[in-house]
Design a protein that fits this description.
By secondary structure, this protein is α/β, with parallel strands linked by helices. It is built from ten helices and six strands, in the order βαααααβαβααβαβαβ. Helix 1 packs across helix 4 (88-106), helix 2 packs across helix 3 and helix 3 (59-69) crosses helix 4. It is globular and about 55 Å long. The mean pLDDT is 95.
């Protein structure tokens, strides 16, 4: 691809810039499987469920989507629910507690290839934004020491405050491009989640790059990726 054709790169965070998607996967697995055991549900939560129902979506949307797949209905609750509450919000908060503990204990390092691309785009004058469904994006960027590499951070908290629909809707990516003052057709979306590439495809952006961290190249293309890479360094 020729970066001279584009004015901005809009990056998802987990699985694109940092390997925190793996931490999210572990946190979701522990939370959901502990819950299913307590509910005496035989069909366990798997990594396939993560990619199908959870990956890339706002936290509570992911909880709701997975529970629907198992025919389980819980009260919605509120964001302030304690993590032991048997509500959609309570389960989401429970998962977040696990994620934050792992992040605190283990820290995180950005993918080297992703950093090399970000550095090259910075030198070339291409605008750069993080567009993440996770409210934890600022904490992850700080833990990795790369907050200053990006001009704009649109995370789940920003989306809720502004009233933006989460992925697979294109709203958060469109908002980021608008905040940067870049036409949607001159922006590139870079995503590893199926819901994320759907968001990019729905937003009429210049290019949607799928980053294959486990979702599968074919699946990423089927959901809207124009090209698929295994590492962002391939885009240099």
């Amino acid at each position: 691809m020729d970066w001279n054709e584009y004015d901005a790169a809009l990056f998802d965070l987990d699985g694109v810039i940092t390997p925190t998607a793996e931490v999210h996967m572990r946190a979701w697995s522990k939370m959901f499987n502990d819950f299913l055991v307590a509910q005496r549900v035989d069909e366990r939560y798997t990594d396939a469920d993560y990619h199908r129902y959870v990956d890339g979506k706002p936290r509570y949307d992911g909880v709701r989507s997975f529970l629907e797949s198992r025919g389980i209905t819980l009260p919605e609750g509120t964001r302030d629910d304690p993590s032991d509450a048997e509500t959609v919000s309570g389960l989401g908060n429970r998962k977040n507690d696990v994620f934050m503990q792992v992040l605190h204990d283990e820290g995180v390092q950005a993918y080297p290839g992703s950093l090399r691309l970000v550095e090259a785009l910075t030198a070339a004058g291409v605008r750069r934004a993080i567009v993440s469904s996770s409210r934890n994006a600022p904490a992850v960027l700080e833990a990795a020491g790369i907050t200053d590499r990006f001009e704009l951070i649109v995370h789940g908290g920003v989306a809720a405050e502004v009233g933006l629909a989460g992925k697979p809707a294109p709203d958060t990516y469109e908002y980021a491009a608008d905040q940067l003052g870049v036409a949607h057709g001159k922006a590139v979306v870079l995503e590893d989640a199926l819901s994320g590439v759907e968001a990019g495809a729905a937003g009429d952006f210049g290019l949607v790059v799928g980053v294959n961290r486990g979702a599968g190249a074919d699946a990423l293309r089927e959901h809207g990726a124009d090209i698929v890479v295994d590492d962002l360094e391939e885009l240099l």
